[in-house]
Design goal:
Blueprint: H1 3-30, E1 34-35, E2 42-43, E3 47-49, H2 54-67, E4 71-74, E5 89-92, E6 99-103, E7 108-112, H3 117-126, E8 129-130, H4 142-147, E9 164-171, E10 176-180, H5 185-191, E11 199-207, E12 209-210, E13 213-222, H6 223-228, H7 230-236, E14 239-244, E15 250-259, H8 268-292, H9 297-301, E16 310-315, H10 316-320, E17 328-336, H11 340-352, E18 362-367, E19 382-390, H12 396-407, E20 412-413, H13 423-426, H14 433-443, H15 452-458
Parallel strand pairs: 3-5, 4-5
Antiparallel strand pairs: 1-2, 6-7, 7-11, 8-12, 9-10, 9-11, 13-15, 13-16, 14-15, 14-18, 17-19, 17-20, 18-19
Helix pairs in contact: 11-12
Bound molecules: flavin-adenine dinucleotide.
Length: about 450
C-alpha cells in the first residue's frame, strides 16, 4: 500500500476511534448513575424513576416484580454503606414530600416518606410541633433515616424509627399495606427498621411532641473525667455526647437540656464563624493539609478559630442538626451502655498504637432501648462509638481494629455506616432476628428488594 493511503487510513481510524469514544461518553452520561453523599458508593441502575404517588410506586414495583427486576428506593443517599445500590430499578421519592395530615390534638403528622427531615422540621414548627430527637444532620429523608435506625443522643429517647406509629408500605410483590397499632401491628413493629429490604415505604405517621427549646452547654473537659462520670452524665442530661480528637487529653462535650426559656441563639456572624468556617471550611482545609503533609497539621491548627465552648438557648431542631460540608467516611457501633468506659479505653489504647494521624473526632452518644427487631438498640440501652476519616482516606486498619474491640461487647453496627460484618456474625446479636426474617419472607418473598448489601448483612430469604 502506498504511504499516502496508509496515512489516510490511519487518520480515518483515529477519527473513528474519537467518534466512538464521544458516542460512548454521551451514552454514559445519559445512563442514570447514582453516587452517595460520601462518594464511596456508586451504581448504574438499569432504570431510575421519580414517582409522585403510592399508586405510581405500586405500579412500578408490580411491573418490576413481574419481570424479575430488582428494586431499591434511595432517600438522600446519606448512607455510607451500599444499602441503596441496585443494578435494577432505583426510585427516588423526592416528589413524595408532602405533609398530608396534622393531628394537633395527638401531636401526630402523616407525611409522604420522601420528605427530608429539614423540610419536615420547618413544617412542624409552623404547627407548634417537633421531632422528639434528631441526629446531627437533617438532610436525610424520613424513610431513609428510619430504615437504618438513625439516632441522636439521649438516654430516655429511642432512635427516629421509634417515633413511627403508622406506615404505608408497598411490598416486594406490589401490594400496598397500611399498618398501625390497630391494623397489621406486628408488621409496623418490624418494618420501622427495614434496612430497605421489606418494600418501599410510601407514607409514615410520626408521633411528634410539642415544639421545645434546648439549653445548649458546650464545654471542653478531661476525657478521663468524662469516662469516669459517663453514666451520671448520660442520666443527668436530656442529650449528652462528647467528641474526642484521638491523641488529645480533653474532649468537646455537649449537654443539651429542655428549657422553657426563650431562644437566644448566636448571631449569624458567630454561626458562620463556628459552624461554617470552623466546623466545615477550616476543618476541610486541615484535612487536605494532613493528607499531603501530615507533619504540618499542628502548625496550621493553631490558626483556626478556637472556642468550642457555648452557652445559649435554641430551637430544638436547629440545635440538634448542623451543616456538614466536609465529606468523610464513618463507622458507628452500638454497645450496652455499661460497657462504654472500658470499651472506649480500649479504643483509645488501640489508636495510640495505630501510627496514623486521625483527623476526625470519635463521637460518643447514648440512646434508649426499643422493641424493633432489627433496631441497633433492640432490647438494650446503648452507647455509641463513631469513628470517621476524611473522604478518600484508607480506613480498613482503623475501622477494623475498632470493630474487633467492639465485637467483644456484642457490638451492633449502624446499618447505614461502614462495617465489615455479615449475617453470620450479626444474627446472634439480635434476639429477634428470626422475627425480622419471617416478616421479610412475607413482604418480599421473591427478593425484589435484595441487593448485595442486604444479601451480605441479612442473608437469604427463608
Ligand atoms: C453527614 C452525615 C451525618 C450523619 N449523622 C447521623 C446521625 O447523627 N445519627 C445516625 O444515626 N446516622 C447518621 N447518619 C447516617 C444516616 O442518617 C443514615 O445513613 C440514613 O439512612 C440516611 O438517610 P437517607 O435518606 O440518605 O437514606 P439512604 O442512604 O438513601 O438509604 C438508606 C436505606 O434506606 C432505604 N430507603 C430509603 N428510602 C426508602 C423508602 N422510601 N422505602 C424503603 N426503603 C427506603 C434505602 O434503600 C437504604 O437501604 C449520617 C450520615 C451522614 C452522611
Amino acid at each position: 500500500m502506498a504511504r499516502l493511503d496508509r496515512v489516510v487510513l490511519n487518520r480515518m481510524s483515529m477519527w473513528r476511534a474519537v467518534v466512538r469514544e464521544l458516542l460512548a461518553m454521551a451514552l454514559r452520561s445519559k445512563r442514570p448513575e447514582f453516587r452517595n453523599w460520601a462518594g464511596n458508593q456508586v451504581c448504574m441502575p438499569a432504570d431510575r424513576q421519580w414517582p409522585s404517588s403510592t399508586k405510581e410506586v405500586a405500579d412500578l414495583i408490580s411491573s418490576a416484580h413481574a419481570q424479575g427486576q430488582r428494586v431499591k428506593v434511595v432517600g438522600a443517599g446519606h448512607s455510607f454503606t451500599a444499602a441503596a445500590l441496585t443494578d435494577g430499578l432505583l426510585m427516588s421519592f423526592d416528589r413524595m414530600d408532602r405533609v398530608e395530615m396534622v393531628d394537633k390534638e395527638n401531636h401526630r403528622v402523616l407525611v409522604q416518606a420522601g420528605i427530608k427531615l429539614s423540610a419536615l422540621n420547618e413544617k412542624l414548627v409552623e404547627v407548634g410541633l417537633a421531632m422528639p430527637n434528631l441526629g446531627d444532620i437533617a438532610y436525610q429523608s424520613v424513610a431513609g433515616a428510619i430504615a437504618t435506625a438513625t439516632h441522636g443522643t439521649g438516654l430516655k429517647l429511642g432512635n427516629l424509627a421509634t417515633a413511627i406509629v403508622g406506615m404505608e408500605i408497598v411490598t416486594g410483590t406490589g401490594e400496598t399495606i397500611w399498618c398501625d397499632e390497630l391494623q397489621n401491628a406486628e408488621i409496623l413493629r418490624v418494618a420501622r427498621v427495614g434496612v430497605g429490604a421489606l418494600g418501599a415505604v410510601t407514607k409514615v405517621m410520626i408521633q411528634c411532641v410539642p415544639a421545645f427549646n434546648l439549653h445548649v452547654a458546650e464545654t471542653v473537659e478531661p476525657l478521663d473525667d468524662l469516662l469516669d462520670g459517663f453514666a451520671e452524665n448520660a442520666e443527668g442530661n436530656d442529650h449528652f455526647e462528647f467528641f474526642w480528637m484521638p491523641g488529645a487529653r480533653r474532649a468537646h462535650v455537649k449537654r443539651n437540656n429542655r428549657t422553657l426559656r426563650a431562644a437566644n441563639p448566636p448571631g449569624k456572624l458567630d454561626h458562620f464563624a463556628n459552624k461554617i468556617v470552623g466546623e466545615n471550611i477550616a476543618f476541610d482545609m486541615l484535612n487536605r493539609v494532613n493528607r499531603r503533609r501530615p507533619g504540618a497539621v499542628r502548625k496550621v491548627a493553631k490558626y483556626l478559630p478556637g472556642g468550642v465552648e457555648a452557652d445559649f438557648v435554641g430551637r430544638s431542631d436547629q440545635v440538634f442538626a448542623s451543616p456538614r460540608h466536609v465529606r468523610f467516611y464513618e463507622m458507628e457501633y452500638g454497645i450496652p451502655i455499661e460497657a462504654l468506659p472500658e470499651a472506649f479505653g480500649r479504643v483509645r489504647e488501640f489508636i495510640s498504637t495505630l501510627g496514623m494521624q486521625i483527623m476526625f473526632p470519635i463521637e460518643c452518644r447514648v440512646s434508649a432501648a426499643d422493641d424493633i427487631p432489627l433496631s441497633t438498640a433492640n432490647g438494650r440501652t446503648s452507647a455509641w462509638i463513631a469513628a470517621h476519616v476524611y473522604k478518600n482516606t484508607s480506613y480498613d486498619t482503623y475501622f477494623n481494629g475498632i470493630e474487633k474491640i467492639l465485637d467483644d461487647y456484642e457490638g451492633r453496627p449502624h446499618w447505614g455506616k461502614l462495617h465489615f460484618q455479615d449475617h453470620r456474625t450479626l444474627e446472634s446479636r439480635y434476639p429477634e432476628w428470626d422475627t425480622f426474617a419471617e416478616t421479610r419472607a412475607k413482604l418480599d418473598p421473591t427478593g425484589t428488594f435484595r441487593n448485595a448489601y442486604v444479601d451480605r448483612v441479612l442473608g437469604p430469604i427463608s
